[in-house]
Amino acid sequence: MSESIDGNVLDYYERGGESDRLTRSAHGRLEFERTRAILSSLLGRRPQRILDVGGGMGVHARWLAEDGHDVTVIDPVPSHVAAAARLPGVTAVLGDARRLEAPLGSADAVLLFGPLYHLMSHQDRVTAIREAARVTRPGGLIAAATISRYAAWLDAARRASFGDDTEDAVLRLVAQTGVIDPHRFGSPNFTTAYTHLPGEADAEFTHAGLAAPATVAVEGGAWLVGDLGAILDDPVARERMMAGLRAMEREPTLLGVSSHLLTYARR
């Protein structure tokens, strides 16, 4: 099903764009650890049948399987599927988030931790969420990750990178339109993507027929800390930071500061 994915996006991921993103930097480690903590809390302890749609090389499928869940990765990138299929206890197949081949109500939980990044139209994103809801049992969990609209600008602020007129114009355009265009950035560091305003994914969940969606901040403002790696390596400082992030994760006035957001609902 690789023909269903934008060519620029496919090329980025086939070149290994996601292979170690969540382990090679402190920011990636924070995103991974917070996503794992939030999702573990939502899933509870009972083993569940989970579809990890757009699950890449299985970075979350690995620990979910280790925790006793029955995990299937569904991804449009052939190299991702091949890598995920090698993980113990994980099944992986090619597929498109907008056209899942799973039966009605067959999953306890469906994760969309990637598709909403690269589905550029509102209708395609709603279709993916609706498909996730279709294959989830009544009462089951649908959870989706999104990139914050202001993440690119805040990252530039973190790096004190405001000296380039072209970059400044691109950052303003992303903030206005939500669209990250790698050709405008002139950098291979990421690919074509859509970034969400706080509350936008909630509206898409509602449009897809899901009631009472909620959004939490993944990294909050902690990803802007200069010596984040040292904090993560210090058990006491790490737990204090994580406790603060848990306490503030639902504060609506702070959602836009987080690099990533996680929106969820029950079918």
UniProtKB/TrEMBL annotation:
Q: Which Gene3D superfamilies match?
A: Vaccinia Virus protein VP39 (3.40.50.150)
InterPro entries on file: Methyltransf_25, SAM-dependent_MTases_sf
Q: What's a Pfam family this protein contains?
A: Methyltransf_25
Recorded GO MF terms: methyltransferase activity
CDD domains (alphabetical):
AdoMet_MTases
Methyltransferase domain span: 50-140
Identify the domain of life.
Bacteria
What the entry lists under PANTHER family is as follows: 2-METHOXY-6-POLYPRENYL-1,4-BENZOQUINOL METHYLASE, MITOCHONDRIAL (PTHR43591:SF24), METHYLTRANSFERASE (PTHR43591)
Record-given protein name: Methyltransferase domain-containing protein
Q: In which organism is this protein found? A: Actinorhabdospora filicis
